[in-house]
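Input record, target 12 of the design panel.
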């Protein structure tokens, strides 16, 4: 099944091969990856290999955030732990690349994703996490309706160092209470 989510300014679609070159540039930028579990020595080949593995795994959805007007890649969303029985999943990674951070694209993309997941796919629960200290992400997620659940200590490793992850979720009822019915 192909994924296509449309918002006012964005189209979120399945990753295509040509996107990997842009991802590889973003995913080695230290400013960009400060709060991501991506080792500093990550290469284009690593990005492509990971992307092809994602395509084979039905519990992972790899998406590109694009500008609606011209299809230019603006960011990436990786969804994991897709559980059709429990109707839940995890937004494992979401980012906007380059100098576009702070422009509202991430907020619009996450809202569009939530609308799709709750209204079209009928999900019950969406989770995500962020590195301790990433107040920009925490503030955005709370603003959009995500609720703190706790801290997973030493839950991820980057360049040989362990980091805590703050866990958050939004439930179907919370989404509809905040945003109303479609």
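The sequence produced for target 12 reads:
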């Amino acid at each position: 099944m192909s994924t296509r989510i449309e918002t006012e300014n964005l189209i979120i679609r399945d990753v295509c091969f040509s996107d990997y070159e842009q991802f590889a540039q973003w995913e080695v930028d230290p400013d960009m990856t400060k709060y991501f579990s991506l080792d500093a020595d990550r290469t284009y080949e690593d990005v492509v290999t990971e992307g092809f593995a994602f395509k084979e795994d039905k519990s992972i959805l790899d998406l590109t955030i694009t500008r609606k007007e011209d299809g230019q890649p603006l960011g990436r969303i990786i969804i994991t732990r897709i559980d059709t029985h429990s109707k839940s999943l995890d937004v494992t990674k979401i980012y906007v690349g380059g100098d576009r951070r702070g422009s509202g694209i991430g907020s619009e993309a996450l809202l569009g994703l939530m609308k799709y997941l709750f209204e079209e796919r009928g999900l019950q629960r969406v989770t995500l996490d962020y590195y301790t200290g990433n107040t920009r992400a925490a503030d955005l997620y709370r603003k959009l309706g995500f609720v703190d659940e706790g801290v997973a200590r030493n839950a991820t490793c980057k360049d040989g160092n362990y980091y805590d992850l703050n866990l958050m979720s939004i439930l179907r009822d919370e989404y509809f209470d905040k945003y109303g019915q479609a």
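Strands lie at 4-6, 10-14, 61-67, 73-83, 88-96, 125-131, 147-158, 161-171.
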